[in-house]
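Standup notes
- DV: blocked on the single-chain target, sequence here:
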Amino acid sequence: QVQLVETGGGLVQVGGSLRLSCAASGRTFSSYNMGWFRQAPGKDREFVAAISWSGGRLHYADSVKGRFTISRDNAKNTVYLQMNSLKPEDTAVYYCAVARAIYIVSPNRPREYDYWGQGTQVTVSS
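- DV (later): unblocked, structure below
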């Protein structure tokens, strides 16, 4: 069982920045592929970004490319999502997720992930 705790959400103005953190339990964090997803009210959960266990492969949704950066610190069992140039459409609950498989075919698909955090709210006001 892996427990994930997201922090760093909040209210920010358009054009502002936030950094989300996701702390994971367990001693094998460095072997996990990690992802960030988000869900706005009335919408399906959508992929935001993913990072491989080594940090060598990164994936981003087109809607956040150039604005968001995913990274990880295996020594701290933590994955980050740096969000810059925020827009109102970025407003959502943000979730981090763990995929235990060493290799996942589609990191943008929720079904690839085994554990999920409780989410943190990000609200971008105009």
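- Follow-up: The mean pLDDT is 95.
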